[in-house]
Design goal:
The complex is a heterodimer of chains A (286) and B (400). Chain A has 286 residues and is mostly helical. Chain A folds into 2 domains: 42 residues; 219 residues, MetI-like (MetI-like fold, Orthogonal Bundle), CATH 1.10.3720. Chain A has 13 helices and 2 strands, in the order ααββααααααααααα. In chain A, α2 crosses α13 and α9 crosses α10. Chain B has 400 residues and is α/β, with parallel strands linked by helices. Chain B folds into 2 domains: 179 residues, Periplasmic binding protein-like II (D-Maltodextrin-Binding Protein, domain 2); 155 residues, D-Maltodextrin-Binding Protein, domain 2 (3-Layer(aba) Sandwich), CATH 3.40.190.10. Helices cover 34% and strands 16% of the residues of chain B. Chain B has 13 helices and 17 strands. In chain B, strands 1, 2, 3, 4, 7 and 15 form a 6-stranded mixed β-sheet that branches. In chain B, strands 11-10-12-9-13 form a 5-stranded mixed β-sheet, covered by helices on one side. In chain B, strands 16-8-14-17 form a 4-stranded mixed β-sheet. In chain B, α2 links the parallel β1 and β2. Chain B starts with a helix and ends with a helix. Classes of the chains: A mainly alpha (286), B alpha/beta (400). At the A-B interface, α2, β2, α4 and α12 of A face α1, α3, β11 and α13 of B.
Chain lengths: 286, 400
């Protein structure tokens, strides 16, 4: 019986392929894309102002509110600024670290360093952010206690606090792709560049970075998109600052249509970002 | 050619998914509320046999079954006596509770005043037949038939307890001790950057209360009935306050931690926060300022779609009983609603600390209520700003 089933499939390669793909495609189209689509369709609905029930008639009121209300524009700009800063900071820290790990460290040290970079990912997100809360606490936090005597004070909760917290959280996601990129970089290229008379910075700018560009883009996709949607960090170490995610969180239970509208913004931003990145060709050589 | 085929397939897949989603959402439950007027919901006429379980939405600390602290338990006894197993879902905020009740999955909710009217007008709760709740007779009279738990003389719930929002201050940092809400709105405050406020649209009422007492020319008589001019004045005050704020608190534990660390030294609080902070050694006090205060009195309400209405009524009667009411009032840190509870609290001073039977204390406490377009103070010549606009204005303030 099994033999006849297997023969039947063997004779129809297309059916074989379809059978293999049904489960993942179902997950992708119905569970993932379908759920996303139904949420986004809600963006075009409104709610009854007093009872809070959703009114299912197509209208663009939410988008109007989003575009005309200056505080929502501020939130989007602020969140973009945070995401960009976090990406830049993570890149700046990750480059020397990955270079050391890939090119200079001995094989045994390399393995230990990779393990150390991955270890924070095992700790819960909330634990890490609460740890940063105790570090950043003004006057009584760890940073003030440690560095206060030499005159450096904690930036406190707020813009700086959020950027520090998020950079810390996403750093492993930036280090690992760049490390992988450096491993693929032949040492002979660096030697050749030196032999031809290039100083270190020149080599970095003209040889290393162009080859590493796809890895940096890969890392930046994590740091950028994760920062765009984040709201827990802002609640815990953001002081009174709010990010885009906070607006969605505050609205989702009682004004779901507006929350859906707000969540289209990071989707649109990431879409534009990915399109721009694709144009540079970075995605083809990942 | 292959890329074009792939793109075409992808496009088809997405359009199929979107079409499916649109159809599905269209097939959802129809919206049957009218824009104005009270939905007609039946009140239960008599109590039947228990259904075996009851699904409760409550604030943290209201429904304790010994799992938090073995000595804190007013649920197990109820379950044994009535055979109704209590399944509790903790609501994080009033907004959260309204959303949960809309699903129709729960039988009873402990709604604060900023949620109760929304639930009533949304048709999510039913009027309560107080004849079926014997312990209702012992509840303090000034909690019954209030604007937030009754409409047109019909009771919609059983009062749970009450508390005032106090002004907390660090006694070792804020000198001299504050006496007025003006200290959190003062642009020249020496504590600028260390002041806190409650992170909810209902805090607009606190600003309105301050204006009610300090700017009588605005004509505010009830902080939850604000016409557009009065509302704008309150929002303006809050905008001026924003630079003074270190953090807006929604989670009371975060607030206690902030008081202890000194990141906030002054601001609105609950008595339970003061008690917790003092318990950790913080030098803090809470006072009711001269202008009076906003406050809250929660109401146990029954869902219009309750699947276990008999157990729901049994629960409401139980939580309003002297013993259970005393237990929860002491654990949570509020004044009980049942007059007989005061003799049953473990701490004999509990009722005195929380002013449970001190009627004079509550005369200038303005309990949380839900602002409606129809002015709650009786004015018919103007339209008042409804709660949904309080929420959008608050969101704008927090995000600017």
């Amino acid at each position: 019986m099994l033999k006849s089933i297997s023969t039947w499939f063997h004779n129809r390669p297309r059916v074989r392929l379809a059978a293999l793909l049904v489960a993942p495609l179902f997950w992708l189209v119905v569970a993932y894309l379908g759920a996303l689509a139904s949420l986004l369709v809600t963006a075009f609905y409104t709610i009854n102002t007093f009872t809070g029930n959703v009114i299912r008639t197509f209208n663009l009121g939410n988008f109007q509110e989003l575009l005309t209300n200056p505080s929502y524009r501020n939130v989007v700009v602020r969140t973009l600024g945070i995401a960009l800063s976090v990406t830049v900071i993570c890149t700046l820290i990750a480059l020397p670290m990955a270079f050391f790990m890939a090119k200079i460290a001995k094989p045994r040290t390399q393995k230990i360093l990779v393990a150390l970079v991955l270890t924070p990912l095992w700790a819960s997100y909330l634990v890490k952010i609460y740890a940063w809360r105790t570090m950043l606490e003004p006057n009584s936090g760890v940073i003030d206690w440690l560095l206060g005597p030499i005159g450096i004070h904690s930036p406190g909760f707020g813009f700086a606090g959020i950027i520090i917290g998020l950079s810390y959280l996403w750093l492993p996601y930036m280090i690992l792709p760049i490390y992988a990129g450096f491993e693929r970089l032949p040492n002979s290229l660096l030697d050749a560049s030196g032999d031809l008379g290039a100083k270190n910075l020149y080599t970095l700018r003209r040889v290393v970075l162009p080859i590493l560009f796809p890895s940096i883009v890969a890392g930046s996709m994590f740091t950028f998109s994760l920062s765009l949607g984040d709201y827990i960090t802002a609640t815990i170490i953001g002081g009174k600052l709010q990010m885009l995610g906070n607006v969605v969180y505050q609205n989702y239970s009682l004004n779901l249509p507006f929350a859906a509208t707000m969540s289209m913004v990071p989707i649109a931003i990431m879409g534009i970002y990915l399109w721009a990145v694709r144009r540079t060709g970075a995605l083809t050589s990942l | 050619m292959e890329v074009q085929m792939r793109n075409k397939r992808l496009f088809q897949a997405i359009s199929v998914a979107s079409a499916a989603a649109l159809v599905l959402s269209g097939c959802g439950s129809s919206d049957s509320t009218s824009d104005s007027g009270l939905p007609k919901v039946e009140m239960m006429k008599e109590l039947g046999a228990g259904e075996g379980q009851v699904n409760v939405v409550a604030w943290a600390g209201y429904v304790e079954n010994g799992s938090t602290d073995p000595k804190v338990d007013w649920v197990t006894g109820f379950e044994k006596e009535t055979g109704c197993k209590v399944n509790v879902k903790v609501g994080a905020s009033s907004d959260d509770m309204v959303a949960l009740m809309k699903t129709g999955e729960y039988d009873v909710v402990s709604a604060s005043g900023d949620a109760s009217l929304r639930l009533i007008y949304g048709g999510d709760v039913a009027p309560v037949n107080t004849d079926l709740v014997p312990n209702y007779a012992d509840i303090f009279d000034n909690l019954k038939m209030q604007p937030w738990n009754s409409v047109d003389g019909v009771a919609y719930g059983i009062p749970h307890g009450r508390g005032a929002n106090l002004l907390a201050y660090r006694t070792d940092i804020v000198k001299p001790a504050p006496t007025s809400w003006g200290s959190v709105f003062d642009a020249n405050s020496p504590y600028a950057g260390k002041i806190t406020a409650y992170d909810s649209p209902i805090y607009i009422a606190d600003a309105a209360l301050y204006l009610m007492k300090t700017k009588p020319e605005l004509g505010i008589t009830y902080p939850y009935a604000l016409d557009q001019t009065q509302f704008d004045a309150a929002m303006e005050l809050l905008k001026q306050q924003k630079p003074l704020i270190s953090e807006y608190w929604g989670d009371y534990l975060k607030h206690v931690a902030g008081l202890k660390a000194g990141t906030t030294v002054l601001g609105t609080t609950w008595q339970v926060n003061i008690n917790l902070a003092k318990g950790e050694g913080t030098k803090v006090e809470g006072i009711k300022p001269v202008e009076g205060s906003t406050g809250w009195s929660d109401t146990w309400m029954i869902s219009s779609q309750a699947k276990n209405p008999n157990c729901a009524y049994l629960w409401m009667n139980h939580i309003a009983s002297p013993e259970a009411n005393a237990g929860v009032a002491e654990w949570f840190g509020e004044a009980p609603s049942n007059a007989k509870s005061c003799e049953l609290t473990a701490d004999k001073n509990h009722c005195a600390t929380f002013h449970a039977s001190d009627d004079a204390y509550w005369t200038d406490v303005y309990y949380w209520n839900t602002a409606t377009e129809k002015c709650l103070d009786g004015r018919t010549d103007v339209k008042c700003v409804p709660y949904s606009e309080w929420a959008t204005a608050w969101s704008s303030l927090r995000n600017s």
